[in-house]
Write a structure and sequence with these properties.
- By secondary structure, the chain is of the alpha/beta class.
- The protein is built from 13 helices and twelve strands.
- The strands form two sheets. A six-stranded parallel sheet has the order 2-1-3-4-5-11, with helices on both faces. A six-stranded mixed sheet has the order 7-6-8-9-10-12, with helices on both faces.
- Strand 1, helix 5 and strand 2 form a beta-alpha-beta unit.
- Helix 1 crosses helix 3 (35-48), helix 5 packs across helix 13 (298-313) and helix 11 (230-239) crosses helix 12.
- The protein is elongated and about 75 Å long.
């Protein structure tokens, strides 16, 4: 049987002390490790295929080094967030336990059993559940919500500034077109019931229009209507003055505009300048012409969630510190706004 590789072997290969190896593995506060030594330790770990004894480490620290993550795996926004979270956890020596959409409540029991050290959830924008929130706080569970609880002072949320993202998008469109933008609000269901994100977007639009002395123009259209009444979209688009500048709250709305423009013989990026205020469909760059959009930075939000939850777990931030963390949006200007951008 091959001899088990130990931290002494890693230290010997890297040419450092065992305390330096421990500091690199555990991100020990108060022990500064230079980049050269850190790299030497990480290279030695890889070369020797060193594996930390998680059980022994857990007995020493009282931690499982595992974070419970709740979300819907069929949702591309969750998988994008998960990618960033897993990367950040791996860098810090933590594992991720995925919990299905029906099993949120089981995570608290896993925490009480010391099988996980904290919980991260990817929630729908503006989600809030007071009973779940109260139980988490009563049990002092380290908890982070990505996009949920934006108006609660009892939960730490990782959020994008939807209002500012609309300001940024409209500034970019205005600089290229000098056309007063129309706001397209797409919604699901029988009536318009905007979530927190859409309320913030709409408020951002109204503020920007007021600041630029432009007349507000808002159109609310039901998402399902394309399937049953595409003429409604065509009729609306045909009535707008050309060229026209449109910002859609969802990328789905922009796709419907593409379809209507094609039926009417209008050119995207020339007759119709359009930008989406999100990247929900994850196809913006592949449309023809490519769709300009506010890219919600879900991988960055996942990394931010991992960093904050580990601060709670390791005692670097008090558990009752619940301030929000805002992650900036990414603006991707493509050919759906002023093709070639040469005018």
């Amino acid at each position: 049987m091959a001899k088990r590789v130990t931290s002494f072997d890693v230290a010997r290969r890297a040419g450092v002390s065992r305390s330096i190896v421990s500091a690199v593995l555990n991100n020990t506060p108060g022990i500064g490790v230079g980049e050269e030594k850190r790299k030497a330790v990480l290279d030695a770990i890889e070369e020797l295929n060193y594996r930390v004894d998680a059980q022994a480490k857990g007995m020493r620290t009282g931690r499982s080094y595992c974070i419970g993550v709740h979300g819907d795996l069929s949702n591309p926004m969750f998988t994008q967030m998960l990618q960033g979270l897993q990367e950040a956890c791996k860098e810090r020596g933590y594992h991720v336990l995925l919990c299905g959409v029906e099993n949120r409540t089981e995570l608290i029991e896993l925490f009480m059993q010391k099988r996980i050290d904290g919980i991260v959830t990817k929630d729908t924008t503006g989600y809030a559940d007071e009973s779940w929130e109260k139980e988490l706080n009563d049990q002092q569970v380290p908890f982070i919500s990505v996009e949920g609880y934006p108006e609660s002072s009892r939960t730490t949320s990782i959020l994008m500034n939807y209002k500012q993202s609309v300001h940024d998008a409209l500034n970019a469109m205005w600089a290229l077109t000098k056309l007063p933008p129309v706001y397209l609000g797409v919604y699901r269901g029988a009536e318009y019931k905007p979530n927190w994100g859409d309320r913030e977007r709409l408020q951002g639009y109204r503020e920007w229009m007021s600041q630029h002395s432009c007349e507000v123009s808002i159109e609310l259209l039901q998402e399902e209507s394309w399937l049953y009444a595409p003429k409604d979209w065509e009729k609306w688009l045909e009535m707008l003055p050309k060229p026209v500048s449109i910002i859609s709250n969802w990328s789905r709305g922009a796709i419907y505009i593409y379809r209507a423009a094609n039926k009417l013989g209008l050119r995207i990026g020339e007759d119709v300048h359009i930008m989406a205020a999100d990247n929900t469909e994850s196809v913006n760059a592949f449309l023809v012409p490519a769709l300009s959009a506010v890219e919600v930075p879900y991988p960055d939000m996942g990394r931010a969630a991992a960093s904050r939850i580990i601060e709670y777990i390791e005692g670097k931030k008090p558990i009752d510190s619940k301030e929000k963390q805002w992650v900036p949006a990414k603006l991707s200007m493509r050919d759906s706004v002023m093709i070639g951008r040469s005018r």
